[in-house]
Structures are given as C-alpha cells and as structure tokens.
From TrEMBL, chain A:
One Pfam family in the UniProt entry: PhaG_MnhG_YufB
Superkingdom assignment: Archaea
Transmembrane region(s): 6-27, 39-58, 64-86
Gene that this polypeptide is encoded by: mnhG
PANTHER family: ANTIPORTER SUBUNIT MNHG2-RELATED (PTHR34703:SF1)
UniProt keywords, alphabetically: Membrane, Transmembrane, Transmembrane helix
InterPro entries: PhaG_MnhG_YufB (IPR005133)
Protein name: Monovalent cation/H(+) antiporter subunit G
Automatic annotation (TrEMBL), chain B:
A Pfam match: MrpF_PhaF
Protein name: Cation:proton antiporter
UniProt cross-references to NCBIfam families, sorted A to Z: PRK12599.1-3
Signal peptide from the UniProt entry: none
Subcellular location: Cell membrane
InterPro entries named in the record: MrpF/PhaF-like
Record field: transmembrane: 6-24, 36-57, 63-85
Length: 103, 91
C-alpha cells in the first residue's frame, strides 16, 4: 500500500474507534441524557473522520465534493437531532440520573 | 490495491457491527427516547458503512445513497421528537 492509502486506513480506523466508543456508550450509560451525550459527540466525530477518509480515497473531484457535503451535513444534523430528542425527553418530565437516586 | 479495499470493507463491517450493538438499546431501552437515540446511531453507522463501501468499490454514485440516507435519518429524529412532545406518549 502507498503512504496515502496508509493515511486513509489510519483515518478510517480512528473513526471506527470513535464509533465503538459511541456503541459502548449507548449500551452502558445509565439514562437518556448521558446516552444522547455519547451518541452525539463520539458518533459525530467518528462519522466525520471516516468520511474524511472516504473523501481522500475517492479521487475524482465530484465525489470529493459530495463527501465534503456529507461531512458538513453530519456535523450540523447529528448534534441537532440528539438535542431535539433530549429536549423532548426533558419536556416530558424525565428526570436526569443522579448517584443518590439510582444507587 | 486488493488489500486496501479489503481493509476499507473490514472497517465498514465493523461499523455494521456497532449498528447491531446499538440495536440492543432499541430492544431494551426503558423510554421511547432511548430507542430513538439508538436508531439514530444505527442510521449514522449505516451511512458511514455505505460511504466506506463506495470508497472500497470506487463507486462514487453510492455517495448519493449515503446523502439521502443521512437526510432521512435526520428527518426521522426531528419529526419523531416533535410528534412525541405534541401528542405525548402515543407510541
């Protein structure tokens, strides 16, 4: 593999690490707000890193532009969706998890 | 060149595995919001897997599929959070 291909695989592996962090956080965190935190932050960073790797790998101009669109779109919409869901949970009166309340 | 596309496909398979792990929270999540967050994460991982497959097969048209899927994923989360607040506890 060429150095550029090594860089692409390294970026994608770093993104996969953050995807794993998001999956573990979704399963292991105690309540909806901490799960939304894990999902929005780690999954957004993993998506942006991995699609940056895709933008490096696809060499034509148009597909690089499409990848950059996808990166910008992910960067805006993923935290917005998590914020909207956490706000809906808060408006329905779901209490945040505390150490005293839940052992 | 062969081993490069194999590495990209392996990372795409890892993202599919993370999406399946997030589906655990869809099954057992105590509130409906946990389920929606987990579906959102699974959809994001699907978008990443489609983009990686596009890079591995050098098929740039797959990126259009990924863009549309990301759009639908965002629309699902926003529409669901609005719907669930206005008509609380329907689902």
């Amino acid at each position: 593999m060429t150095p550029v291909e090594w860089a692409i695989v390294a970026l994608a592996l770093l993104g996969a690490f953050f995807g794993a962090v998001a999956a573990i956080g979704i399963v292991r965190m105690p309540d909806i707000y901490t799960r939304a935190h894990a999902a929005s932050k780690s999954d957004t960073l993993g998506a942006v890193l991995t699609i940056a790797a895709v933008a490096l790998a696809l060499e034509s101009n148009l597909s690089t532009v499409k990848s950059v669109f996808l990166i910008v779109f992910m960067f805006i919409t993923n935290p917005t969706a998590a914020h909207a869901i956490a706000r809906a949970a808060q408006e329905q009166g779901i209490e945040p998890w505390t150490k005293e309340g839940d052992g | 060149m062969v081993e490069f596309s194999t590495a990209l496909l392996a990372i795409a398979a890892a993202f599919v595995l993370f999406a399946v792990v997030a589906l655990y929270r869809v099954f057992v999540g105590p509130t409906i919001h946990d389920r929606v967050i987990a579906v959102n994460v699974a959809g994001t991982n699907t978008v990443i897997a489609i983009a990686l497959v596009a890079a591995a097969f050098e098929e740039s048209t797959f990126l259009d599929v990924a863009l549309v899927y990301a759009l639908l994923n965002f629309l699902l989360s926003i529409a669901f959070s609005k719907f669930n607040v206005e008509h609380g506890g329907v689902l």
